[in-house]
């Protein structure tokens, strides 16, 4: 007898073939029958008029801490994500010495926008090694989760607080011993950051920023010794324009390891189309050396806001960190200096992240002073015109009155037909993979976790940039093969039963809203799903009609055991 029989659905199996009618049978967490099935089942689901697809795989998340206080990985789970890759950008919670717990929490709060009180009270912090961290999650999560090994954690373990320098030969040997220990425990590979805007709680660049290129390459070489692993890197060029040195480093890391490297995130619109070919140079150079580099690119526009108080994308505008890393009162004082304002404004407009400098289009959201109430839900350009000042001055005056807490919404200006055509063409490039949600990070500033349903809504009822089977393939089989997830990402006999039943007429994302349900009643952004009727993880029902069942059937995916040599890796 089957455990579950899903009957009369339209199967989109993840392999980029056309949808076909059929049934899917599940037993002991696996797909055991596909087609016309007459075998009895303990539970039968009528999927007439519904799509049956593999669960989505999100290749870039930061659920490392959230899974302890929210084992469901909300809201990703509500939007059909059944497997997540975490531990990205060089930041992980293990390995860790007890002395470094406070440092790590403050760094994660600064660089990934995780509320400090949620980090402190929401996770047990009972582990030391990477394996102990994975064990703490085993059996306690509703999604499948794989974790990269963060370079920052490795350097902090060995160098302690004296990390703002290159490692000595002796220290590098210790790091090279610690990484294999973490990979043997199940780490998915190595993630590292060389982004100057990634600073710790003291405003100092993160530990891996200071590593020599020799160290990074040597660690990549070690990753290549372990089955089912990969590399992930964040560098200044990821948010601006790659330098020749960055191109060579990324390609070299893939070459020496024989493993694929991915980076986040490639912005694709009319504004950036002239630089897209340049940003794919690491992929071209990697192929020349026998390696592979892949860029992540979100297939849907994410809702995001900014603030001059907690870390956000504004820190990426050089030389803004010189001011934004100051204490709040001194920061306000500097921002109110006309000379400083002029310098920051000019540098922003002329930077490679100039899309952040369209200050007039910012929409004022939550405000925290009586004087600013009149500006709530108004564009800065309108306020500036009313006051007879330039837009940046108007903006700084508003945020200063709120002690920099003002919520600033960035309204999308890259959703034209031309922008979407650039994206459509980009998605046909084998060096580009959909993803980059950052789910689990920047909880009160950014929501990318709903990209699967937003993309499907556009695919089925919007611009229809790609066929349905292609959209499903992009979010299931493509990332599963890249990371070498064994028997996941497809509806295929013998595969794990990570499955969705969804309504093609209604699937999509509800509007973004704020909730105050984190530990310490901290704020986060979320969005309910629409049309996601059932989600199965390893054959067990985790979502019904968009809501969690409370079941926790997820697997902590360990390299070598749950992953094999990836398609994304070098043959």
Protein described:
This protein is α/β, with parallel strands linked by helices and 571 residues long. The chain has a domain at 304-410. Helix content is 32%, strand content 20%. The chain contains 20 helices and 27 strands. Strands 1, 2, 3, 4, 5, 19, 24, 25 and 26 form a nine-stranded mixed sheet that branches. The chain has a six-stranded parallel sheet with strand order 9-10-11-12-13-17, sandwiched between helices. A hairpin with an 8-residue loop joins strand 21 and strand 22 (524-526). Helix 7 (213-223) packs parallel to helix 9 (244-257). The longest helix has 16 residues, at 169-184. The protein is globular, with a radius of gyration of 23 Å. The mean pLDDT is 94.
What topology does this entry show?
Blueprint: E1 2-11, E2 20-27, E3 30-35, E4 41-46, E5 51-54, E6 56-58, H1 66-69, E7 81-86, H2 101-112, H3 116-122, H4 130-137, E8 144-147, E9 149-150, H5 151-159, H6 169-184, E10 189-194, H7 213-223, E11 230-235, H8 236-239, H9 244-257, E12 261-264, H10 273-279, H11 281-289, E13 293-297, E14 303-306, H12 321-324, H13 328-335, H14 338-349, E15 362-364, H15 380-387, H16 391-401, E16 408-410, H17 417-426, E17 432-434, E18 446-447, H18 451-461, H19 468-475, H20 477-483, E19 499-502, E20 508-509, E21 513-515, E22 524-526, E23 529-530, E24 532-537, E25 540-544, E26 547-548, E27 556-557
Parallel strand pairs: 1-4, 1-5, 6-7, 7-8, 8-27, 9-10, 10-11, 11-12, 12-13, 13-17
Antiparallel strand pairs: 1-2, 2-3, 5-19, 14-16, 14-18, 15-16, 19-24, 20-23, 21-22, 24-25, 25-26
């Amino acid at each position: 007898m089957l455990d579950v029989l899903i009957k009369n659905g339209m199967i989109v199996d993840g392999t980029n073939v056309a949808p076909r009618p059929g049934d899917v049978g599940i037993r002991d967490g696996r797909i055991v029958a596909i087609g016309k099935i007459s075998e009895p089942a303990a539970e039968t689901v009528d999927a007439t008029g519904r799509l049956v697809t593999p669960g989505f795989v999100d290749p870039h998340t930061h659920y490392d801490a959230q899974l302890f206080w929210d084992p469901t990985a909300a809201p990703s789970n509500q939007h059909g994500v059944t497997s997540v890759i975490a531990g990205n950008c060089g930041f992980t919670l293990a390995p860790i010495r007890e002395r470094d717990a406070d440092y790590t929490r403050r760094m994660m709060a600064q660089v990934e926008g995780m509320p400090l009180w949620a980090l402190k009270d929401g996770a047990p912090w009972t582990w030391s090694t990477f394996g102990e961290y994975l064990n703490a999650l085993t059996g306690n999560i509703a999604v499948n989760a794989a974790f990269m090994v963060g370079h920052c954690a490795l350097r902090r373990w060995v160098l302690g607080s004296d990390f703002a320098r290159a490692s000595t030969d002796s220290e590098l040997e210790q790091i090279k011993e610690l990484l294999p220990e973490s990979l043997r425990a199940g780490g998915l590979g190595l993630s590292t950051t060389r982004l100057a805007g990634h600073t710790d709680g003291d405003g100092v660049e993160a530990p891996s920023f200071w590593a020599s290129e020799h160290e990074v390459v040597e660690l990549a070489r070690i990753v290549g010794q372990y089955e089912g692993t990969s590399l992930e890197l964040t560098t200044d060029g990821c948010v601006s324009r790659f330098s020749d040195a960055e191109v060579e480093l990324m390609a070299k890391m893939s070459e020496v390891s024989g493993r694929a490297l991915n980076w986040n995130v490639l912005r694709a619109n009319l504004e950036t189309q002239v630089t897209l070919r340049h940003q794919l140079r690491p992929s071209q150079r990697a192929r020349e050396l026998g390696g592979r580099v892949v860029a992540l690119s979100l297939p849907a526009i994410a809702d995001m806001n900014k603030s001059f108080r907690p870390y956000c994308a504004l820190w990426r505008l050089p030389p803004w960190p010189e001011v934004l890393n100051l204490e709040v009162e001194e920061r306000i004082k500097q921002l109110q200096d006309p000379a400083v304002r002029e310098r920051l404004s000019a540098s922003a407009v002329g930077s490679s992240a100039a899309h952040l400098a369209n200050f007039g289009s910012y929409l004022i959201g939550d405000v925290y002073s009586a004087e600013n109430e009149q500006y709530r839900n108004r564009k800065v350009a309108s306020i500036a015109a009313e006051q007879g000042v330039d837009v940046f001055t108007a903006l700084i005056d508003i945020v200063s009155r709120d002690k920099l807490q003002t919520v600033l919404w960035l309204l999308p200006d890259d959703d034209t037909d031309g922008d979407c055509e650039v994206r459509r063409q980009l998605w046909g490039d084998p060096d580009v993979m959909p993803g980059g949600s950052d789910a689990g990070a920047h909880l009160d500033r950014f929501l990318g976790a709903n990209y699967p349903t937003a993309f499907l809504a556009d695919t089925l009822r919007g611009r229809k940039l790609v066929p349905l089977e292609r959209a499903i393939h992009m979010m299931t089989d493509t990332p599963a093969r890249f990371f070498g997830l064994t028997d996941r990402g497809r509806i295929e006999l013998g595969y794990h039963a990570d499955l969705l039943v969804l309504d093609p007429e209604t699937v999509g994302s509800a509007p973004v809203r704020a909730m105050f349900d984190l530990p310490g009643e901290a704020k986060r952004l979320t969005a309910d799903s629409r049309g996601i009727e059932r989600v199965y993880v390893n054959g067990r029902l985790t979502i019904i009609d968009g809501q969690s069942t409370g079941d926790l059937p997820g697997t902590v995916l360990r390299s070598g055991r749950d992953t094999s040599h990836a398609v994304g890796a070098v043959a």
